[in-house]
Design brief:
Layout: H1 3-23, H2 29-36, H3 40-53, H4 60-68, H5 72-79, H6 85-98
Helix pairs in contact: 2-6, 3-4
């Protein structure tokens, strides 16, 4: 497999992941963080970092709009729910367990 084909396949998989996340707005970022240790905002940070590494002028907010398919503030108003105390506790416990003893 050539590097170009590999890059095309990776890009296609990424676009499909974004489409999947956009279709499943009921899945909250806190749930993604609890179960996958990443969320939509992480994807946006990684996207912005990759752009920066290639001297492409895409900031974090623009990257979030690419990931969310709309401005983050709009997505948040439409779909984001308040994290429950239980979700926050689970997330905090998982963060603590990742820290070296």
């Amino acid at each position: 497999m050539t590097q170009d084909i590999k890059t095309e396949l990776e890009a296609a998989a990424f676009r499909r992941l974004l489409a999947h996340l956009r279709q499943h707005t009921e899945v909250q970022n806190i749930e993604l963080m609890i179960h996958g240790d990443f969320c939509r905002n992480c994807l946006a940070k990684w996207y912005a970092e990759a752009a920066d590494e290639r001297s492409v002028d895409i900031g974090y907010e623009q990257a979030r709009e690419i990931v969310y398919g709309m401005p983050y503030s709009e997505w948040k108003d439409r779909y984001q729910t308040e994290a429950t105390a239980e979700q926050l506790a689970i997330y905090q416990d998982r963060q603590k367990s990742k820290q070296p003893s």
